[in-house]
Design brief:
The complex is a heterodimer of chains A (about 375) and B (about 130).
Chain A: E1 2-9, H1 13-24, E2 27-28, E3 37-44, H2 47-57, E4 61-65, H3 73-82, E5 88-93, H4 98-106, E6 109-114, H5 119-176, H6 184-215, E7 224-227, H7 228-245, E8 249-252, E9 259-262, H8 264-280, E10 287-294, E11 298-305, H9 312-317, H10 339-349, E12 353-359, E13 363-371
Parallel strand pairs in A: 1-3, 1-4, 4-5, 5-6, 8-10
Antiparallel strand pairs in A: 2-3, 7-9, 10-11, 11-13, 12-13
Helix pairs in contact in A: 2-3, 5-6, 6-10, 7-8, 8-10
Chain B: E1 4-8, H1 12-24, E2 28-32, H2 35-44, E3 49-53, H3 61-72, E4 78-82, H4 84-88, H5 97-102, E5 107-110, H6 115-125
Helix pairs in contact in B: 2-3
Classes of the chains: A alpha/beta (about 375), B alpha/beta (about 130).
């Protein structure tokens, strides 16, 4: 349960007590809210006291009479506006002139309740205000969290980009100082390592470009009839040299065409990612098996490897940005940690799903499921 | 006798370069490429000083390792070398009492530190 503080500013005791009574057992539910909201009523008979309570208690809602003994309601409203307080102000007044109404609205009054009001009028007005306030705060919170995630992403990214730069710079310095004298072999090794880090950085940047394309929210474009099997064939051909180098065999077990509506570029990213991972995290002499199946209401692409596999705990972390499973078996394998999160984002654009089954030291199977209706 | 420095980092290039620097300062080195390997090493070896990376197998591997080393060898000074501060603006001030209770490191260094600064800090910790 959440509580909103309602400050009633009115010199008439009857109005203050009436409001307290009306709101006592009143609560607001909303399908979007996880909880219901109740009210705590605060009272101020004058504008001066209202300002004191506002500063001290920071109410969520103010029910404000304009005609007060000292400073007027409109001046309290100006105060709230000037202080940039996040408070919804409702004017309660019996003689609302048009001029006052205009001024109050300009100063941010949310609503007018004519006096005298019935309990029902007050409740329905408060219900509207509460929902509006709740949504506004929810939006603010989500914006803030979004920024937070963005910030984390950028800091990890700069770390990932800086690490290879540091390594390369370090090697250049060692070579510049001729720290290994005439030992050409030692320098050669450093050049090789630097090249390796450059390659890693390049693939990170390529992945990032894919990711920004996806995150810019461009919906699935360029939809056309695509034969998944023939794209898989291209992927296999592209990755064949890498597989030979790693001593891994790739088998495309589906021969017939499997057609779906998709953007061929995106399907290619998915297949390249799945197959290159299956090669990368495989064992010497291992194999990769690809199946593409059309079922009653879904198309499934599955890629299995006979590689190092993962524990259950590791599979749960797999699809987050920059997550790489670090252990003894993966320490010599480079990667950006973005491949699978890109893959998942693309699959989601097609309202699809991706599943992983894995056993340590036996291998993993990744299955992408595209629903078809 | 030469003092021994334990260096732990999962970036093999950084590990190699740090080892080279520390050896040029005149120390013996033992290296480990992660928290697990380092834990095995400290079972049987007591280094005179340890330089640890922060994020290895997990984001806080360096902290955990520092804690284990201090528990076994309370007198071994520990440096955590990290690139984290620079990028995230996260700062670990180990001079505050609160953080001293749980962060068992004697010094935090940025990974980009110059060799002569590093040498000075190591010597200070080893009271050379």
């Amino acid at each position: 349960m959440a509580e909103y503080k309602v400050l009633v500013v009115d010199d008439e005791l009857g109005i203050r007590m009436g409001t307290r009574r009306i709101l006592q057992n009143f609560r607001v539910d909303y399908p979007f809210m996880d909880e219901h909201i109740e009210y705590i009523v605060l009272e101020a008979p004058t504008g001066e006291e209202a300002i004191e309570i506002i500063d001290r208690e920071m109410p969520d809602i103010i029910l404000l009479d304009n005609k007060l003994p000292g400073i007027q309601g409109i001046e309290v409203l100006e105060y709230v506006k000037k202080k940039l307080y996040d408070i919804v102000v409702v004017m309660i007044t019996s003689y609302a002139s048009l001029e006052l109404a205009v001024k109050a609205t300009r100063d941010g009054a949310y609503d007018f309740i004519p006096k005298p009001f019935t309990p029902q009028e007050l409740r329905s007005s408060l219900e509207n205000i509460t929902k509006q306030l709740f949504l506004k705060r929810m939006t603010q919170k989500m914006n803030k969290e979004g920024k937070q995630i963005r910030f984390q992403f950028l800091s990890v990214l700069s770390h990932e980009l800086k690490a290879p730069l540091n390594a390369i710079e370090g090697y250049l310095k060692i070579m510049d100082d001729r720290q290994f004298g005439d030992n050409i072999q030692a320098y050669q090794e450093m050049i090789n390592r630097s090249m390796e880090r450059v390659t890693g950085m390049r693939s990170l940047i390529m992945d990032l470009l894919d990711l920004t394309k996806i995150e810019s929210g461009t919906p699935v474009q360029n939809l056309q009839k695509v034969d998944l099997t023939s794209i898989a064939k291209i992927s296999v051909d592209t990755l064949r040299p890498y597989a030979i180098q790693k001593d891994v065999d790739i088998y495309l077990n589906t021969k017939e065409a499997v057609v779906m509506d998709a953007d061929p570029k995106e399907i290619e990213i998915i297949l390249n990612n799945l197959i290159s991972n299956a090669v990368k995290y495989n064992k010497q002499g291992g194999r990769v098996d690809i199946f593409i199946k059309k079922e009653d209401n879904a198309i499934k692409i599955s890629v299995s490897d006979s590689g190092i596999g993962m524990t259950e705990e590791e599979t749960t972390r797999l699809f987050q940005d920059f997550v790489r499973i670090k252990n003894q078996k993966t320490k010599n394998i480079t990667g950006s940690g973005l491949g699978l999160s890109i893959l998942k984002k693309i699959v989601e654009m097609y309202h699809g799903d991706i599943e992983v089954q894995s056993k340590p030291d036996q291998g993993s199977t990744f299955t992408v499921i595209f629903p078809q209706d | 006798m030469k003092k021994t420095v334990l260096i732990v980092d999962d970036d093999m290039d950084y590990l190699f370069q740090m080892k080279l620097k520390v050896e040029q300062f005149g120390f013996e080195t033992i290296t480990a490429d992660g928290q697990k390997e380092a834990e095995l090493i400290i079972e049987s070896v007591k280094p005179d000083l340890a330089i640890l990376d922060l994020m290895m197998e997990s984001d806080d591997s360096g902290f955990i390792l520092a804690y284990r080393i201090k528990r076994k060898y309370p007198d071994v000074p520990i440096i955590i070398a990290t690139a984290v501060t620079a990028e995230t603006g996260m700062s670990f001030n180990i001079n505050s009492d609160e953080s001293q209770q749980w962060i068992k490191a004697d010094l935090f260094l940025d990974k980009g530190i110059r060799a002569d600064q590093l040498q000075r800090e190591i010597n200070k910790l080893l009271k050379i």
